[in-house]
Amino acid sequence: MSTLSADQIESLSEHLESAELQARAVHKITDDYPDLDFEDAYAIQWATRRRKEARGNRIIGLKMGLTSRAKMKQMDVEEPIYGFLADYFQEAEGAEVDTSKLIHPKVEAEIAFVTKAPLRGPGCHVGQVLAATDFLIPAVEIIDSRYENFRFDLPSVVADNASSSRFVTGGGMMSPRETDLRTVGVVLEKNGDPVEVGAGAAVINHPASSVALLANMLAQRDEEIPAGTLILSGGITAAVAVEAGDNVTMRAQGMGSVSMRFV
Ligand code: 0L1
Ligand code: MG
Fold first, then answer.
1. How many folded domains does the chain comprise?
2. 204 lines ligand 1 (CB under 6 A)
3. 58 domain-assigned
4. pLDDT tens for each residue of 47-98
5. Considering only CA atoms, which of 58, 107, 96 is closest in space to residue 230?
6. Which of 47, 68, 201, 263 has its CA 20 to 30 A from that of 212?
7. Ligand 1 test: best mutation among 104, 111, 163, 168, most atoms within 8 Å of CB?
8. What is the CA radius of gyration of the chain?
9. Which atom of ligand 1 is nearest to the CA of 239?
């Protein structure tokens, strides 16, 4: 049940989006609104999405967050969440990512899905996700919580668009028919050192189950995943902090690699 008025939702959306656009850390919003619940939090996130669209940004994808045990343990939370990806979040493969526009970026190794048919819950399952997937590509998500020291609770992070900030896709496309996503291995390298390794099963046992969960969560708002959506299915490893001067490469088994440099 929502605890905030429509005006409070708009004002919290503006507060968090300004922090994002100005690369400025703020304290978690539940410090001031302790009763804020998930319904409020997603209402704030959707208000931010509408704010960006009204400004001319396109929403090009969706993401699932906190899908792996490693991430849940790292952030001390227990439930996957979703967020949206705006067009300017995308950085090209090999890009120089400008850290002056970010607060305290971290990188995550992920498998991205691109859909060729809509997915609608409730009851969406792994089989439907695989049938509706056009191709898979490796992706590095660059998260950047707007909260001081990445300190937040679940409603606060949902309102902050699940810490979404930038992402890079690269390597090669793969058909979901060609691989068992549970055993696809990934290596995340920072400055040439393998700092995190993992396999797809880390993401709710199968990365496609994360996409199914996304469709089922969206159904609660009578929304679906449209055809042609890029979906970051969730970090396979824990997130790794980066700063200017760092080079990051992710290698995904059978899908090549994706790299970027932080400047
Ligand atoms: O993509 C993610 O798993 C991030 C979700 C938000 C939590 C965080 O900032 O680590
Ligand atoms: Mg992520």
1. 1
2. no
3. yes
4. 999 999 999 999 999 999 999 877 778 777 778 999 999 999 999 999 999 9
5. 58
6. 47
7. 163
8. 17
9. 10
